[in-house]
Amino acid sequence: MLATALVALLASSSPTINPDEPAALKQEIQAAAQLEGQNPWAAAVRYCRAARLGVIEAQYRLGILYAFGVGVPEDRRAAASLFSVAAQQGHAEAQVMLETIHYSADALPDCVLADVNPPHAEPELTGNASLDQILASLPQKKRWVAALVERMATWYEVDPRLALSIATVESRFEPGARSSMKAMGVMQLIPATADRFNVRDAYNASQNIRGGLRYLRWLLDRYRGDVMLAAAGYNAGEKAVDRHHGIPPYAETQQYVRRVHQLYPYALHLPDAGRWSGPRPFQEVSAVKKPLLKKHVRHHRRP
Q: 297 lies in a domain?
């Protein structure tokens, strides 16, 4: 993964430490750098302590871990805040990262503000992890959100397992999630989609889930129960699916469809089996193609 490779790159380089720092802090940073590739959470614990004491390199490296969700949960707000603090003190790499992630915030992680450990990163959605495994690994604070998705899905005639799969890939059931394209909440609704489905507060979990489920149900109806086309439409917008007569050739959208299909391995939405006769829309081209890296979108979901 990109994140693992990046952390390995950091771990292979010597951290830049102010020579005026106390010897104990220098040792702390060196020890943390060695842990980045083996136990990134333990590295984050050390960086938190040093960052709390004002060590610029620790602020930068902790920001990297938060930016890519390695060892600690992915949190671009925390990462941007750490990069900003380090950049203001002259850390050139932190300034580059701040410009790269296109995000500004003033929300330092709790472990920098107080003597507490950072949270552990949630299990990654990779390999053959099943939906049941993902749900079983959710922290207690997110299980109520998953339960809400499961219950509300039946209200809109969406298979709860498909709804849970979409919510897993979109936000890992995080009500406060926000993407670089301003997609919000559990179901990652962009403002236009929120307006379209009458979601007044996209960070209200029940409103957000309702809007996402209504959109998903609308897409399933439009594509006659074809799960992959509906998933592609949810990610890139139905106009993109219609324009390309199938799954758009966007690297992110094709990867998104694969991830949904991994969790919900059915071509046809199960509750809609037998509802329509004849071939599904674009059936001859609805297979997932290899990513075309020249085109890329990030949660456009144009209505």
A: no
In this predicted structure, what is the pLDDT of residue 219?
98
Number of domains into which the chain is organized: 2
* pLDDT tens digits for range 202-213: 999 999 999 999
At 64-87, the pLDDT tens digits run: 888 877 888 878 889 999 999 999
124 catalytic per annotation: no
Q: How far apart are CA 285 and CA 251, in angstroms?
A: 16
Q: Give the span between the Cα atoms of 234 and 1, in whole angstroms.
A: 24
At residue 140, what are phi and psi to the nearest 5 degrees? -55, -35
Question: For residue 293, is it within any domain?
Answer: no
pLDDT tens across 5-62, in order?
Answer: 455 445 445 566 666 667 777 788 888 888 887 788 999 999 999 999 999 999 999 9
Containing domain of residue 143, as a range?
A: 131-285
Q: Are 152 and 51 within one domain? A: no
Q: Do 71 and 177 have their domain in common? A: no
Q: Rounded distance, CA 176 to CA 235, Å? A: 19
249 is a domain residue? yes
- Report how far Cα 239 is from the mean position of its chain's Cα atoms: 23
How far apart are the C-alpha atoms of 282 and 229, rounded to whole Å? 9
Q: Is 249 helix (H, G, I), strand (E, B) or coil?
A: coil
231 membership: H or E segment, kind and range: helix 227-236
Report whether pLDDT(223) > 60.
yes
Of 170, 174, 252, 284, catalytic: 170
* Tokens read off for 21: 């720092």
DSSP letters spanning 125-191 = --TT--HHHHHHTS-HHHHHHHHHHHHHHHHTT--HHHHHHHHHHHHSS-TT-B-TT--BTTTTB-H
Q: Residue 34: its pLDDT value, please?
A: 82
